[in-house]
Write the structure tokens for this entry.
Amino acid sequence: MNHRIFTDREEAGWMLVERLRAEGLNGPRRGETERPLILAIPRGGVEIGAVLARGLGAELDVVLSRKLRAPQQPELALGAVSETGEVYLNQFATAMSETGEAYVAAERTRQLAEIARRRELYRAVRPPAAVAGRTVILTDDGIATGATMIAAIRTVRAAGAKWIVVAVPVGSPERLEEIRRVCDRLVCLEEPQAFWAIGQFYRDFTQVEDERVVELLSAYGRPETKWRRLAPVGG
């Protein structure tokens, strides 16, 4: 079965906006007075999150979780660590002989240092958004192992989110099943069986730099702009 190839994160984001609108997820739920809060996983996820914020007239912020890299395979996630330091490990991690407690502890320290660096940079332009009692839409440019998303869900749940929606353009079906069990709603445009990497579903999967994240947080992360609904570029 053929699956959609997105032109870039911008196109994927607007397709997600349309799906969220169609499913009635573009406004406050019963008993809520605020629109959903968009929380994006840096860095690629912030491009998606900015489009969601524009299309839904919502507020944008980041949630800082980082994958724990496998030994000699930095693209493979053993698990992830949240901003609070909590570690989530994928099931296969314990089967790898190289991933003892010492390795995981050292990798956790490395990734927490990167989280601290990004927090200092991003929070200079965008203080943390209020999460408690709100519907939160968590997003990224795709889900491969799901580790960083699960760490993000746990962080947001602990912060008191009322309802958690995970919205992504593409994801591994096996990992999406695990995500469904820990969030309140999952919206995913493509769930291809032949899944190797997120980038295979984008024509343009250019790496997103910190400067771009700062730019997007400055533009769409301010609470006073969260009610603006902007049309797609050129639309």
Summary: The two ends are 31 Å apart (CA to CA). Residues 224-235 have pLDDT under 50 and may be disordered. Residues 9-65+129-221 form a domain with the Rossmann fold fold (CATH 3.40.50.2020).
